[in-house]
Amino acid sequence: MLAQPIARIENLRVEFQTRDGAVTGVEDISFDVNPGETVCIVGESGSGKSVTSLSLMRLVEFGGGQVAAGRLLFDREADGSVDLAQTDQKQMRHIRGNEIGMIFQEPMTALNPVFTVGRQLTEGVRLHLGLGREAARDRALELLREVRIPEPERRLRQYPHELSGGMRQRVVIAMALACRPRLLIADEPTTALDVTIQAEILALIDRLKRETGTAVVFITHDMAVVAQMADRVVVMYRGQKVEEGPVAEIFESPRHDYTKALLAAVPRLGEMRGKPAPEPMRLVGQETQAAPVAGSDAVLLEVEGLTTRFPVTGGFLRRTIANVHAVEDVSFILNKGRTLSLVGESGCGKSSAGRSILRLIEPMAGRIALDGVDIMALQGPKLRQARADMQMVFQDPFASLNPQMCLADQVAEPMRNFNVPADERRNRVALLFDRVGLPQSFLRRYPHELSGGQRQRVAIARALALNPKLIVADEAVSALDVSVQAQVLNLMMELQAELGLSYLFISHDMAVVERVSHDVAVMYLGRIVEKGPRAAVFENPQHPYTQALMKAVPIADPRQRKLEKDLHFKPIPSPIHSVDYAPGRSEYAEIDPGHFVLTSESGY
């Protein structure tokens, strides 16, 4: 006899009221979730994935939506099956957290910044389970150990801003699991996390599911994560379910055109094996594939001994009592028309290195030469003039664009700052919009009127406005849907081939790095631990940290799932050292021509 589904969604329809009338967010969605099963809901932003999960929690009403039709049946075990769509909010307060747990996408907004981690963890168990203060604290400690947070007693006293992104996400998972819910909804829980922390959190959710029999609804746009986690997959597109089936069937014989396009856009680790140069992906509906990006042997950027530290102040007089060693003795060369990728976990110093090269952060020591010009020796107007040759594309385009300026003015602003005549500015802005694949009708629009992928295209157009030689792309595609990410990566490679651009590509996504890179440098604790041609680093990783990083990457193939016993990550030591600490030089051994591995001060 088959077990009764824990949740059954039948013909769900959700509407949002706007000034122009009702807008349908989800139309006629139906699927079941069985005990101990993981159902992955996949699709692009705006496809209705999160709306479906928020409807199940009846939280969609707090965002202006309402369940217009359909049934949301939930098996409460003791009280039998209830229709959550008809349940009053008082009853829902008891079900939320207690019987249905939810892990939200952005842990910093899911946690309250003014309460300690301990206060937030004990709140749910005291409310739902009626535990006293001491019992609730013991339960909170037990939860933190379950999600493998180091020093749990200390963490209980800390505030969310004192924890890293990965630790905050573990706290949110611990909160969702506090009352041992029968159903766990995970809404993009690993999108912004590093590959190693993502692997640990996926393994953690999977282990807890097996141990407790909890059913999981996992919402994501990352097909590699789907392959790792799912038992069944529901594919959504524009508010409707277009395909559903077992995970192996969806990956090996997709039926719907949208599912096929989604899978074609996924960069797969190992795909570039045997290919000497990066090449754009062939997307569904694209007739021809662009040629590989060869690059040149001429040196554009030389970085030697780059060191950046941030002071830690304390005491009554706010004296410097220690330093954060963000970037320590980093050296590399980037050639014209080529891409060098800096990879590593959060806090390894990737972004600090990129910003130090542009002098957005002032380095403590080192030499930076761009096309023969010593950037470290420049000051004032000369440094400003040199910045025309080096631009940056940031991770979050919404934060890097001005919400009060129309797009045409934002792309024209760098040219206005460098006194380009008005007529030339207008023509160049129109040309740049064509170049990044945006229609002219977008010129008068504002950032909030665009999707994430379109905003990132505007950020790229703005970076290109002054014909730079170097673009630092800091996690430029990590927040984008897989199909939009593929389009933006193809655009960047086409522009590189056309304009001879050089990219310093900062990322934690190893599959993307393999697709776009000529050369790769792996960073750990502020140092480059391994560097060399892309093929050498990916196909013959030598440093233990690089090997651990490769092992953690989820592969978009359900037959190649990672096992928890294979994931052995050492906790990252603190990069904070006393003022008198004197780190040694970085020394490398050359394994193959151009392939270097750190032999000193590795710490891993």
From TrEMBL:
It comes from the Bacteria. Its EC number is 3.6.3.-. One of its GO terms (molecular function) is ATP binding. One of its GO terms (biological process) is transmembrane transport. Gene3D superfamilies: P-loop containing nucleotide triphosphate hydrolases. The keyword Transferase does not apply. It holds the Pfam family oligo_HPY. Residues 7-263, 301-550 form the ABC transporter domain. Belongs to the ABC transporter superfamily. This is Glutathione import ATP-binding protein GsiA. Keywords: ATP-binding, Cell membrane, Hydrolase, Membrane, Nucleotide-binding, Transport. It is found in: Cell inner membrane.
